[in-house]
Amino acid sequence: MPKRFVVPASDFSELPRFPGDIELSEALTVAAQQLHDTDSPHNTMRTAVRLAVHLLPGAEHADISVTERGGPRQAVAWSDDVVRAAGAPQGDGREPTPYWDGLWHAPVVRVTDSETEEGCAALAGAGLRSALALRLRAEKRRLTVLTAYSGKPRAFDATATRVGRLFTAHVSLALDSATVREQLTEAMRTRDLIGQATGILMERLDIDAAEAFDSLVRASQRENVKLRDLARRIVDTKNAT
Predict the structure, then answer these.
(1) DSSP secondary structure string, 112-146?
(2) Are 120 and 109 a contacting pair, CB within 8 Å?
(3) Dist CA 48 CA 35 (whole Å)
(4) Which of 38, 50, 143, 168 could join 44 in a cystine, given CB atoms 3.0 to 4.6 angstroms apart?
(5) Could you give the domains of the chain?
(6) pLDDT digits (tens, 9 = 90+) for 159-171
(7) pTM over 0.90
(8) Residue 195, class by beta-carbon neighbours within 10 Å (0-12 exposed, 13-18 middle, 19+ buried)?
(9) CA–CA separation, 213 vs 58, rounded Å?
(10) Quick one: DSSP state of residue 57?
């Protein structure tokens, strides 16, 4: 049984430069701009899988999936329905895609031929002979991975791996940036919502801002409801009258 090819991080310092580096640099610059122009983490991932198909040598399909340690992986963005189906949980839904195990310890795993490698039956069944799995995020119990696929065996070589590592570095930065922007936007919306609810209580109960906010907090604790959700309920009720 052929051994799965796991690429340690140290290998990349030894990879030679190749003649297309200028073109690659320009392509990565354009890709980075498109990634950073997205307005949410979900759109960042959708853009990333589309770009991966065009940028990574040998790639015909791509997806981004997440998995909890010991659990199945779930596709969250995909280039087409072929890889969406291949990313569905296998068997009883409790086991992860086997070749992903190496990604807890190495940033890249290559499947050279799914028809001969153990644990790759789902890929082979979908007509995907090769895979290049690139780790985007590694938390204590959660992995986020971008995977490129091909219908041909041995489609991804050292060059594809190098380009993939460079590309996923841009994707990771863009994803972090989009996540922060989304969190800040949500925080501002929550602040405004609570401010509106506080104003409504001030008018309704004839109390000052501090008393209105305290009343809101006490009601949130009493009803075991998030402050934001309670504020939205108050504002929606006011707007409906």
Answers:
(1) S-TTTSTT-HHHHHTT--EEEEEEEEE-SSEEEEE
(2) no
(3) 7
(4) 38
(5) 5-179 (3.30.450.40), 183-240 (1.10.10.10)
(6) 999 999 999 999 9
(7) no
(8) middle
(9) 58
(10) T
